[in-house]
Specification:
Blueprint: E1 8-12, H1 22-29, H2 35-43, E2 47-49, E3 52-53, E4 65-69, E5 87-90, E6 94-99, H3 116-123, E7 147-153, H4 156-167, E8 172-180, E9 186-189, E10 192-194, E11 202-204, E12 212-220, E13 224-231, H5 238-245, H6 259-265, E14 272-280, E15 287-291, H7 296-305, H8 308-316
Parallel strand pairs: 7-14
Antiparallel strand pairs: 1-4, 2-3, 2-4, 5-6, 6-7, 8-13, 8-14, 9-12, 10-11, 12-13, 14-15
Helix pairs in contact: 1-2
Length: 318
């Protein structure tokens, strides 16, 4: 990675780059830096297009002048922290853990410590691959209150291969959700994008990005259901947004859920668990199927719905 200075660099958009988002364009021009790093620079006003600040979604035209002022990312440097990890699988290339609810995956403003990345660095003697200084080893993420299987890379080769597997939709993901009401069995294809008013939220939008999720109901008790969710795409909050769109939100979800039912049942968090990842090992090609034991707070609701043996019997057949 080149030096981070406050000197501006000038470049001009080519005809081949016309129609490409500016954050993606810059990440391609400067491969030593991540797309998220350029998004940070854009948010800080450190990227100008023809002398004017831009939004990360802007698409330059041929000949446009782009000025980039490289900046160091603020906040404390990443520190390894001896945080216990429930390891589901590990070899010299990859590691998979059962992430507990409440753990943030990577550092961000307000969460500079106590994250999975801090724990990963301690586990790997301070070394993890990747070009993003705040997300070493990370190839996907789970929301803070979502528990379950989280996989990370320990080598650069594995990091690149895992990213390819996710990008090419070669990762089969199975989630468990306790929902308000009973969604219909089947597949929903509803594009998701940033909410036009509440910018921290996502929503089903006609001009959003493709989002496809397969749902099947494993149990129902007239008020709540246990739902098996298989997302075929990887949009932010995808399962939660799709279930809200169907009128059967995740119980306990403070953003997309039912305030009335959340207050009535009072769960400790949104009841979503990343139960299983199935894929081919990024280096050996060996078929992998990694499952995360269901945490106690989630198991409590399984017993209320259908009894543990019946529920797990149906899940195991998926």
């Amino acid at each position: 990675m080149g030096p981070i200075t406050q000197e501006a660099e000038l470049l001009f958009a080519s005809s081949e780059e016309e129609g490409t988002r500016i954050d993606k364009l810059l990440a391609a021009r400067y491969p030593d830096y991540s797309r998220s790093y350029f998004q940070y620079l854009i948010e800080q006003g450190c990227v100008l297009l023809n002398g004017e600040p831009v939004k990360k979604s802007l698409m330059p035209e041929e000949g446009d002048e782009i000025e980039v002022c490289f900046q160091a990312i603020p906040g404390p440097s990443l520190q390894p922290e001896a945080i216990p990890l429930e390891i589901l699988f590990e070899d010299e290339h990859i590691i998979a853990v059962n992430k507990p609810a409440g753990m943030v995956v990577h550092p961000a403003p307000g969460h500079w410590s106590g994250t999975f990345v801090n724990a990963l660095l301690a586990h790997c003697d301070g070394k993890a691959p990747g070009d993003d200084p705040l997300r070493p080893g990370i190839v996907h993420r789970l929301d803070r209150e979502t528990s379950g299987v989280l996989i990370a890379a320990k080598t650069l080769q594995a990091h690149q291969k895992l990213i390819e597997l996710f990008s090419n939709r070669c990762m089969e993901k199975l989630y468990l959700a306790v929902c308000c009401g009973k969604p219909a069995n089947g597949t929903i294809s509803a594009p998701i994008g940033r909410h036009p008013v509440h910018r921290k939220e996502m929503a089903v939008l006609g001009d959003g990005r493709e989002a496809v999720t397969e749902f099947s109901v494993a149990a129902f008790n007239d008020k709540l259901s246990l739902v098996l969710a298989k997302p075929h795409t990887g949009r932010t909050h995808q399962i939660r947004v799709h279930l809200k769109h169907l009128g059967t939100p995740v119980l306990g979800d403070p953003v997309y859920g039912s305030d009335r039912l959340n207050q009535l049942f009072d769960p400790p968090r949104h009841l979503l668990h990343a139960y299983r990842l199935s894929f081919e090992h990024p280096i050996t090609g060996e078929p992998m199927k990694i499952s995360a034991p269901i945490p106690e707070d989630f198991a409590f609701w399984l017993k209320r719905l259908c009894g543990p043996s019946l529920c797990m019997s149906g899940i195991a057949q998926e």
